Amino acid sequence: MSTTPATGETPATELEVAILGAGMSGLCMGVALRRAGERRFLILEQAQGLGGTWWHNRYPGAQVDVPAPLYSYSFAPNPHWRQRFADAAEIQAYLEQVAERQGLRPHIQLGCRLVDARWDEATGRWQLSAADGRRWAARHFVCSLAPLHTPRWPDIPGLEHFAGRRVHSARWPEGLDLRGQRVGVIGTGSTASQLVPAIAPQAGQLSVFQRTAPWVLPRLDRRYGALHGLLARVPVASTLVRGFWYHLLEWGRRGFDEGTLARRGMQRTARAHLHRQVRDAALRERLAPTIPLGCKRLIYSNGYYPALQRDNVTLVTDAIEAVTPTGIHTADGREHALDLLVCATGYDVEHALSLPVTGRGGRTLQQAWADGAQAWRGISVAGFPNLHLMLGPNTATGHTSTLLYIEPAVAWVLRAITALRRRGARTIEVDAEAQRHYNDALQARLAHSAWAGCRSWYRAANGRNIAIWPGFTREYVQGLRRDGVALHRFGG
Ligand code: NAP
Fold first, then answer.
1. What gap in Å lies between CA 32 and CA 192, rounded to an integer?
2. pTM of the prediction?
3. Which of 199, 254, 344, 378 fits a disulfide with 191 by CB distance 3.0 to 4.6 angstroms?
4. Cβ contacts of 224 within 8 Å, gap of 6 or more
5. DSSP assignment string, 206-248
6. Which residues pair with 183 in a beta bridge?
């Protein structure tokens, strides 16, 4: 069905639910809708393939740092994982398979870039416009733009004047040949820790520019054999394996709290790992972290420290002063000549801000979030009826699988859609006071946490933590179940 267009505009196709993004959360929402018998939905994806993060991140060495049995949907265990920590290509293939088996293909529109989302009070629908002129009018808008999808270039003078090749890790060009090249990597976060060991053997010379030394723990990886495939095919066994990892990682959450046994254990393990892998005391000192453990994402790697000690690799810890046409100039006066500059410098954490989203009364999310993104449980925002965010503000975790947050959020959205229909209402919207209460408590807890201890992508420029869920997973899930839709208002 189509709504009447304003003069000259393409008519808008009516949908019950429009989902933005075919990453893990968008696909999960699609599966839930299909299982509930809903067919009037579309997943709109700007890339030419599905998988979101796992479609875009193709840098050498890209892997997940959560065990694969827990980095799979609970309804789709995967007997084909090749290793405990799956690589990007495996995960993308898994998501393709899920989309195929769950009948999502006809619902996915690839190469579709949304440019505007606007709440229309008169029709009680979200009016969505794509760059190619297509339009939709959806009762519900599920916005599953991951927070980490817009690459951040470092704010370094002269970057744009670099005469060699410059790439961002999140948009790795296919077939990039590093042989004989003088390569510089800026950044020592999760991405660089995977990228550096993978490219070090290929590069002619590799300089790694470190501003902050990360905490690095051993990676307990292993190849999966026939036994894993068997366990994943037997529902009871796969639930037990998943349960094992769930509880182990939940226990690891204690490592973020000051004075706990888990924290002391993790610090000791990381220091012993550094000591074991780096024999040179001077280098060890430069690699010893000075930030509180956990305030940035922990790194699990067995290959990072050894890669830094290769003959063709140099760790540079002098501050970068400028990028010149031929390389990088550091504070000690040295010029590091480079052919290729790789920025593993993370993302601009925007949540939904890369798309103009306009709610009630013409107020945009940009305006509502002027002091930092916030929502109720990362899902609903006051003033934005029938908008459901996936992996919204304060739903990232430092200790476990993001899917453990996606699946309950999807279940909650389905419950909200059903409740709305049952009541014969047109809109559901979180109570502004409930949202404020929720965020005040969250921020108070974060202010005294490990995450307050350093600069990271978790925090906005004003210091507000807009990304991390500070608790255990069960607290988030129980909170969602307990509150249900009680803190939301229904409108006619
Ligand atoms: P990131 O954690 O934000 O790290 C960016 C790095 O770039 C930091 O080392 C930062 O230094 C450095 N940097 C930024 N601007 C700089 C500048 N102007 N000069 C010098 N250094 C600069 O980004 P990321 O490594 O891409 O990781 C982002 C997130 O993606 C992770 O936290 C994680 O959630 C996710 N991720 C996950 C995996 C996985 O295995 N599942 C893998 C990769 C990424 P400072 O620390 O000093 O700021």
1. 35
2. 0.95
3. 344
4. 68, 81, 82, 83, 84
5. EEEE-SSPPPEE-----B--HHHHHHHHSHHHHHHHHHHHHHH
6. 206, 340
Record the tokens describing residue 15, joined without a space. Answer: 């949908």
Q: What does the alpha-carbon distance between residue 364 and residue 215 come to, in Å, rounded to a whole number?
A: 38
Q: CA angle at residue 16 from 14 to 17, to 5 degrees?
A: 110
If you measure from the C-alpha of residue 456 to the centroid of ligand 1, how many angstroms do you get, rounded to a whole number? 8
Do 51 and 92 contact (CB within 8 A), yes or no? yes
User: How many angstroms separate the CA atoms of 300 and 270, rounded?
Assistant: 9
Query: Where do we find the tokens 């094992």?
Result: 244
CA angle 300, 301, 305 (to 5 degrees): 135
383: tokens are: 């003033």
Q: How far is CA 89 from CA 54, 108, 258, 474, in A?
A: 7, 20, 37, 30
Q: Whose CA is nearest to atom 24 of ligand 1?
A: 346
Q: Which residues of 422-455 are buried (b: 16+ CB within 10 A; e: fewer)?
A: eeeeebbbbbeebbeebbeebbeebeebbbbebe
Euclidean distance between CA atoms 345 and 357, whole angstroms: 27
Residue of the CA atom closest to atom 34 of ligand 1: 297
Please name the residue whose Cα sits nearest to atom 23 of ligand 1: 346
User: What Cα–Cα distance (Å) separates residue 107 from each residue in 17, 38, 260, 403?
Assistant: 11, 11, 47, 21
Q: What is the pLDDT of residues 284-338, one digit of tens each?
A: 999 999 999 999 999 999 999 999 999 999 999 999 999 999 999 999 999 999 9
CB 415 within 8 A of CB 485: yes
- Give CA–CA dist 227/225, Å, rounded: 6
Tell me the per-residue pLDDT of 146-170, one tens digit each, with 9 for 90 and over: 788 889 999 999 999 999 999 999 9
Other Cβ atoms less than 10 A from the Cβ of 310: the count is 14
Calculate how far, in angstroms, residue 187's C-alpha sits from the geometric centre of ligand 1: 6
Which among 170, 172, 173, 145 is positioned nearest to 45, based on CA atoms? Answer: 145
Closest alpha carbon to 120 in 351, 427, 370: 427
Partners of 340 in beta bridges: 165, 183
Ligand 1 atom nearest 190 alpha carbon: 25
For 385-434, the pLDDT digits (tens) are: 999 999 999 999 999 999 999 999 999 999 999 999 999 999 999 999 99
- Tokens of residue 471, six digits: 């608790």
Ligand 1 atom having least distance to the Cα of 170 = 26
Phi, psi of 220 (to 5 degrees): -90, 60
| Cα torsion 225, 228, 232, 236: sign | positive
Cβ 119 vs Cβ 428: under 8 Å: no
Q: What are phi and psi of 310, to 5 degrees?
A: -65, 155
Token pair for 31: 């599966």
DSSP string, 89-130: HHHHHHHHHHHHHTT-GGGEETT--EEEEEEETTTTEEEEEE
